[in-house]
Amino acid sequence: MKSLSRVTLIVCAMVCSFVASATDHIVEVVTDNVNGITAFQPKFLTIKKGDTVTWVNKVDDLHNVITYPDGFPAGSQGFESPYFENAGDSWSYTFNNEGTYQYHCIPHILMGMRGVVTVSKPTPQRGFHKPSKDELVAYRNKLLEFFDSEEFGIMPDAVRRNVEP
Predict the structure, then answer these.
(1) Is position 108 annotated as part of the catalytic site?
(2) Domain segments of the chain: what residues?
(3) Catalytic residue, candidates 25, 105, 111, 155
(4) Catalytic residue check, 25
(5) Predicted confidence (pLDDT) per residue in 89-102, tens digit
């Protein structure tokens, strides 16, 4: 009977340490209209596999969180939050695969609002997801839902011709 209770205690300790090791990290979604700044704080975050990141909108402003089409490890999934509109709006994502996840805010992509989450270790250069043409078209269409085509006039003509709306 004693050995059974020791085994039970050991198993409980192992399970409890696993559950306790997962952490929830907060990334603030910041708008500073006075200084013309939109940002994710922190911009770079290193976490462990199984950890969750929660993005929290700090003021009433339109933001979202979306991975670039080639901004996550091969074999993983990209992510996309709904749009935040109000202070306190939040969205969480649990990272179950190691690697580097590069993301941005669609409404403020032209202002450079982007961030990086590294899970355990960075993704090697050749280890990123290679998006299909359909994925690139879908991503482009998401951008064009928010911006009109004139705002993307900085795109080279060759890119515009090769990606169908």
Answers:
(1) yes
(2) 23-129, 132-165
(3) 105
(4) no
(5) 999 999 999 999 99
Cβ-Cβ contacts under 8 Å for 133 (sequence gap 6 or more): 163
| Active-site residue identified among 14, 108, 111, 155 | 108
Active-site choice (12, 14, 113, 155):
113
Over the Cα atoms of the chain, what is R_g?
A: 20
- Asked if the 23-129 domain carries CATH number 2.40.110.10, the reply is no
- Please give the structure tokens belonging to residue 47: 């976490």
* Residue 63 annotated among the catalytic residues of the structure: yes
pTM: predicted TM-score of the whole model, two decimal places: 0.78
Burial class of residue 129 in the structure, from the number of CB atoms within 10 Å of its CB (0-12 exposed, 13-18 middle, 19+ buried): buried
Whether 111 is catalytic: no
Rounded Cα distance between 147 and 139, Å, is 12
